[in-house]
Design goal:
Elements (H helix, E strand, L loop, with lengths): L3 H10 L13 E6 L6 H14 L4 E8 H10 L6 E6 L13 H9 L4 H14 L5 E5 L5 H8 L3 E5 L3 H8 L1 H8 L37 H12 L5 E4 L7 H8 L5 E3 L18 H6 L6 E5 L8 H14 L2 E5 L4 H4 L4 H4 L4 E4 L4 H5 L4 E6 L3 H10 L3 E3 L6 H12 L2 E3 L7 H13 L1 H20 L5 H13 L1
Parallel strand pairs: 1-2, 1-4, 2-3, 4-5, 5-6, 6-7, 8-9, 8-11, 9-10, 11-12, 12-13
Helix pairs in contact: 7-9, 12-18, 16-19, 18-19
């Protein structure tokens, strides 16, 4: 397996608890999750490691019943973390329209009252007041809660530094781009250092929306206004890989802690691979396989799925495809049979381990930040097909800032565009340069989690804030 030294350095990363002074009284930490996509899972990873280094602290983890059930079922939670369920805003007779944002908006209509009532209950049952507040950065009202309780507030941003910096600059961006006037999509952010070539089309849509009063846009706007009040903001990244936005954030926030969340737990052991992805990869040649995954929430439209399948088959590419849903129903007829000698389609793959495998040559992704970070950990160039949120910004960062991949031609999957992108990444001089650059970023990540690396020191600082 590639880059085993990453895991070796992580063992140092976790040997911090002996450095933390024991306290006479037990601390009670409130953890408020955003129960959608991978947000709650990533926050739990962080809190679980914090709890291991904080033997004199207990943690109440507040999320919806559905979210908590998935998190605490699939993980080995520390005994000091207690799941606390909150209302999700969905009545028993509610009928979903099919829009993924619908559940988010129903949930936001109940916040922060659903958190407050459950927090009151947790204090009464434990007999201990909260000593620290850790929240997903989306939950902007953490600023008011921490002020009223007179305790530290740690906000956790599960994406990268560039996206959170954009949200912090929402007012300036809207003013400069003329959102309420002659706004044009071909404008660029030439007024922000480090973002000069970023087109307005690649800004998260809620930043430049005409209406900031919708539940999700309002939440992000308020987050941008309140994050400077946080005692510390943890970011799912590594300080060394993108210094410009990191330095900008340091001048804006009280304390910035870069801690790469995917590395807070070691990759799954080989037996945590029920569909035999790694065994299949062991039989393939080095740098010969394309890995495909669009995350836990994304499903490309039918015509793009067909185009991707046709590109893989026509180009004769070897592939492993982590596919949500029934591939027999959504992929071209007999595609699975015709390509069974070159690829496999699975319902789940141990992504971090797959990306670290020597046979993987490219990663076709939606450009979600967690996937971008894991691609760097695996030293695998990216081909991005962005959909929403920070995907477009991440794709631009991958291609224009780091040069470790590219956004698929036209921003949408076509047969020719996919084949062209794969040929560039797998078999051209430009692709070799991408590989070289992503290997360089990987080395910076390894340094960050070394005994005196930035992530290790930031994690230690987080422990001190919490305890």
């Amino acid at each position: 397996m590639r880059h085993k030294h990453v895991c070796i350095e992580l063992n140092i990363y976790y040997q911090i608890n002996h450095q933390i002074m024991a306290h006479n009284s037990t601390k009670h930490v409130a953890v408020l999750a955003f129960p959608f996509a991978t947000h709650a899972h990533l926050l739990f990873k962080l809190v679980n490691e914090v709890s291991k280094a904080s033997p004199h602290a207990t943690f109440s983890f507040f999320s919806t019943a559905q979210s908590n059930s998935a998190i605490f079922k699939d993980s080995q939670a520390s005994d000091s973390i207690k799941p606390c369920n909150i209302e999700d805003g969905i009545s028993k007779d509610f009928v979903f329209s099919g829009s993924p944002i619908e559940a988010v908006e129903r949930f936001l209509q109940k916040t922060p009252q659903n958190f407050e009532s459950s927090m009151e209950k947790a204090v009464k049952e434990s007999g201990k007041a909260f000593s620290c507040l850790i929240t997903d950065a989306f939950l902007w009202f953490g600023a008011d809660m921490a002020r009223d309780l007179q305790i530290p507030w740690v906000a956790v941003w599960t994406s990268g530094p560039r996206s959170v910096f954009i949200h912090l600059q929402t007012e300036l961006i809207r003013e400069k781009l003329g959102i309420h006037g002659n706004f044009q999509l071909d404008k660029k952010l030439d007024f922000l250092p480090g973002f000069e070539s970023l087109p307005a089309t690649h800004i998260p849509e809620d930043v430049i929306a005409k209406d900031l009063t919708t539940p999700f846009a309002s939440m992000l706007h308020k987050m941008g206004l309140n994050l400077p009040k946080a005692t510390a903001v943890c970011i799912n990244s590594f300080e060394e890989i993108d210094s410009i936005p990191i330095n900008q954030l340091k001048s804006t926030l009280q304390d910035l802690l870069t801690i790469g969340l995917p590395l807070l737990t070691l990759p799954p052991k080989k037996h945590c691979d029920p569909q035999g992805c790694l065994e299949w990869l062991d039989k393939q040649k080095q740098d010969s396989v394309v890995y495909i995954s669009f995350g836990s929430m994304i499903m490309p439209p039918p015509h793009e799925l067909t185009a991707l399948a046709e590109a893989l088959e026509y180009g004769g590419f070897h592939f492993i495809w982590s596919f949500k849903g029934n591939p027999s129903e959504k992929l071209p007829k007999e595609f699975l049979d015709r390509t069974k000698e070159k690829g496999i389609v699975v319902s789940w793959a141990p992504q971090l381990q797959v990306l670290q495998h020597h046979s993987i040559s490219a990663f076709i992704s939606h450009g979600g930040w967690n996937s971008v970070v894991e691609s760097i950990i695996g030293s695998v160039p990216l081909i991005c097909r962005p959909f929403f949120g920070d995907h477009h910004l991440n794709s631009w960062t991958v291609e224009a800032v780091w040069g470790i991949g590219l956004e698929i031609e036209g921003g949408k999957i076509t047969k020719d565009g996919t084949m062209k992108a794969l040929q560039v990444v797998q078999g051209s001089e430009k692709g070799q340069k991408m590989k070289h650059k992503v290997v360089h970023l990987n080395k910076l990540v390894v340094d960050a989690v070394s005994s005196q690396g930035s992530s290790t020191l930031n994690f230690e600082k987080l422990i001190k804030i919490v305890t």
